[in-house]
């Protein structure tokens, strides 16, 4: 393969020429890792925090779980704690890795780390969104989140995957 590795925490596009059953040309997007969290308010795991965030690329608000890029020198776990503080004003009391998965492995190197947090603590004023973020925080039941997925009100892939993963593999354990 020709090409060089991208710098960490930057997005780059690279064309690669590969010899697999002949010759082919592909485009690959190199992106930093992302951490996402399903934040439960308390140990009963009935109510979550969800963001209603304006996304300029879509020109509308969508529902999403707190998430963000893993900064250089930061672990995915620390990234999710930082993002929770910045976007919601809360820090998780307990945090667990649920799974990790590639976003679009055919064309992107982006790897998602999906966490669940249980219990929230006020982060003492560390609530400071990025200048381009327009975020409203809502508390909803897990049941309502599932209904929002089914009705198409939640359309963010990482949010859908995290909620359904929890519901299907962890909720009854």
Task: Chart the SSEs and their pairings.
Elements: E1 12-19, E2 23-30, E3 34-40, E4 47-55, E5 60-64, E6 67-69, H1 76-88, E7 90-102, E8 111-122, E9 135-141, H2 142-151, H3 157-170
Parallel strand pairs: 3-8
Antiparallel strand pairs: 1-2, 3-6, 4-5, 4-9, 7-8
Structure description:
The protein has about 170 residues and is α+β, with helices and mostly antiparallel strands. It has two domains: about 1-30, no CATH class; about 30-170, Nucleoside Triphosphate Pyrophosphohydrolase, CATH 3.90.79.10. It has three helices and nine strands. It has a four-stranded mixed beta sheet, sandwiched between helices. Strand 4 (about 45-55) and strand 5 form a beta hairpin. The longest helix has 14 residues, at about 155-170. It is globular and about 55 Å long. Mean pLDDT is about 85; it is low at about 1-10.
Short description, anyone?
The chain is of the alpha+beta class and 173 residues long. The chain has three helices and nine strands, in the order ββββββαβββαα. The radius of gyration is 18 Å and the shape is globular.
Give the low-pLDDT segments: 1-8
How far the N terminus sits from the C terminus, by CA atoms, comes to 45 Å
Q: What's the CATH superfamily of the largest domain, by name?
A: Nucleoside Triphosphate Pyrophosphohydrolase
Radius of gyration of CA atoms, rounded to a whole number: 18 Å
Care to count the β-strands? Answer: 9
Biggest sheet record = 4 strands, mixed
Give the averaged pLDDT, no decimals.
Answer: 86
Q: What is the CATH topology classification name of the largest domain?
A: Nucleoside Triphosphate Pyrophosphohydrolase
Q: Name the strands of the widest sheet in spatial order.
A: 6-3-8-7
Q: Roughly what percent helix?
A: 10-25%
What structural class do the secondary elements suggest?
alpha+beta
Following the backbone from N to C, one meets helices and strands in this order, namely: EEEEEEHEEEHH
Give the number of helices: 3
Query: Do you know the CATH architecture of the largest domain?
Result: Alpha-Beta Complex
Net shape = globular
User: What's the structural domain tally?
Assistant: 2
Q: What's the CATH C level of the largest domain?
A: Alpha Beta
Strand content: 35-45%
């Amino acid at each position: 393969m020709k090409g060089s590795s991208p710098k960490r925490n930057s997005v780059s596009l690279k064309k690669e020429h590969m010899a697999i059953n002949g010759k082919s040309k592909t485009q690959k997007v190199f992106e930093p890792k992302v951490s996402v969290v399903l934040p439960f308010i308390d140990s009963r795991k009935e109510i979550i925090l969800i963001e209603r965030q304006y996304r300029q690329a879509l020109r509308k608000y969508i529902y999403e779980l707190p998430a963000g890029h893993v900064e250089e020198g930061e672990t995915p776990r620390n990234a999710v704690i930082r993002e929770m503080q910045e976007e919601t004003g809360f820090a998780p009391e307990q945090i667990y890795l649920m799974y990790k998965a590639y976003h679009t492995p055919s064309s992107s190197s982006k790897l998602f780390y999906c966490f669940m947090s249980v219990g929230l603590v006020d982060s003492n004023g560390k609530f400071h969104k990025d200048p381009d973020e327009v975020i409203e925080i809502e508390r909803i039941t897990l049941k309502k989140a599932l209904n929002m997925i089914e009705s198409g009100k939640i359309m963010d892939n990482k949010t859908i995957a995290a909620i359904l993963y929890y519901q299907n593999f962890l909720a009854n354990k």
